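Need a sequence for this fold. Nothing fancy.
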């Protein structure tokens, strides 16, 4: 029996983090008329259902990036669940943080995609970095070969 790492991401908590981040992002922005842009850029707390619907596609993209190291992936609101195959003890905690970050950054990309090109580029870069870091954390940097053709 191999050791596994279970990662549970609470969707309402992730939604709250994204709402808070959009408020932070909008804090210093103003429209051309000098009006604060929070109403145009910040995510509204009434959008939880729309957020959850779009989160599923982001979660599937995260899963696809690490599917070789994933035994189980479930998207069952209010939770996103990943069961990862054996990874190093140090990476267990890091993997959970990286999964949450990848989901958060992916959702911020979704949100800013049609609202703010600059913020979209910022979060898209962070999203790709989190996916890359996650892949490295769960699969390592060395490949294992099950056999050698040379008999070595």
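Here you go.
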């Amino acid at each position: 029996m191999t050791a596994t790492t279970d990662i549970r991401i609470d969707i309402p908590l992730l939604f709250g983090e994204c709402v808070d981040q959009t408020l932070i992002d909008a804090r210093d922005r103003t429209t051309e008329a000098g009006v604060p842009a929070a109403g145009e850029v910040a995510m509204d707390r009434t959008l939880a259902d729309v957020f959850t619907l779009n989160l599923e596609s982001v979660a599937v993209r995260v899963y696809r990036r690490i599917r070789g190291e994933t035994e189980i992936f479930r998207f069952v609101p209010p939770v996103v669940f990943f069961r990862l195959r054996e990874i190093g003890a140090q990476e267990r905690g890091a993997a959970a943080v990286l999964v949450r970050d990848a989901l958060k950054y992916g959702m911020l990309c979704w949100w800013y995609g049609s609202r703010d090109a600059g913020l979209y580029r910022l979060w898209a870069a962070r999203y790709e970095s989190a996916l890359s870091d996650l892949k490295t954390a769960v699969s390592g940097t060395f490949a294992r070969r099950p056999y050698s053709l040379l008999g070595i």
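For context: Strands lie at 5-10, 70-76, 79-84.
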